[in-house]
Amino acid sequence: MKLVVFGATGKTGKEVVRQALQKDFDITVFVRNPDKVLLRPANLTILQGDVLDQSAVSKAVQGQDAVISVLGAGIRKTDLRTKGTRNIVKAMQEHGVKRIVSQSSLGIGETIDNLSIMARYLCVPVFLKNALIDHAGQEELIMESELDWTIVRCAGLTSGPLTEKYQHGFTSKKSNIKGRISRADVAHFMLSQLKDSSYLNKTVSISY
Q1: Least crowded by CB within 10 Å, which of 27, 158, 188, 193?
Q2: pLDDT band at 122; cut points 50, 70, 90
Q3: In 3D, which of 118, 134, 114 has the Cα closest to residue 126?
Q4: Rounded distance between C-alpha atoms, residue 55 and residue 41, angstroms
């Protein structure tokens, strides 16, 4: 499978790339700074560019079988995820690439009920509001496309190890989640969705 990864030099993106290389994917990473790409095996292609540059994104998507988007912008006020996703979706439509798996966050829509009381009434309105607005815009663009999409709504991300043991697909009424998950396990789940149609054209929540 030919796979292009957007956000490949972020903490989750690095895990996606590392695990994908172990699965013998033919990977293209789209990055602003190639010096941040430490792994350089034969099946890895590095393309330098800005996700806000439509022509550069189009070049990266052309000829791919699937897209993984783990665009990150921290908690600052920005619409980078939304604008970048708009360019990715447009490029996929232009080149007939159908499959996309995109990272998002718990706290959007009905999943606000999955958050702890502190997260719901303190962290979200004070610290995470801008990031969730950007994620919501990103999700809307993907849902409105005619692509084969899966949106992965993650609990709080940690730098913990790969366990391959996590909960996914739970509803907003689920109360016994831990509210956190390692980036390694998020990467594992996102890669698994490339060959799994269980959550095709669906949002899916993931947490320990």
Answers
A1: 158
A2: low
A3: 118
A4: 26
3-state SS class at 192: helix
Q: How far apart (Å, rounded) are the C-alpha atoms in residues 111 and 36?
A: 34
Residue type (1 letter), 158:
T
- Give the orientation angle of helix 80-95 with respect to helix 129-144, to 10 degrees: 20
Which of 140, 137, 207 shows the shortest CA–CA distance to 172?
207
Judge contact between 167 and 180, C-beta under 8 A: no
Confidence of residue 39 (pLDDT cuts 50, 70, 90): confident
Q: What share of the chain is helix, strand, coil (3-state, %, to 5)?
A: 40, 25, 35
CA distance 150 to 115: 21
Tokens 């697909």: give the residue: 169
Q: How far, in Å, CA of 43 to CA of 54, rounded?
A: 25
Cα(76)–Cα(151) distance, integer angstroms = 22
Q: Which residue stretches of 40-182 are H helix?
A: 54-61, 80-95, 117-118, 129-144
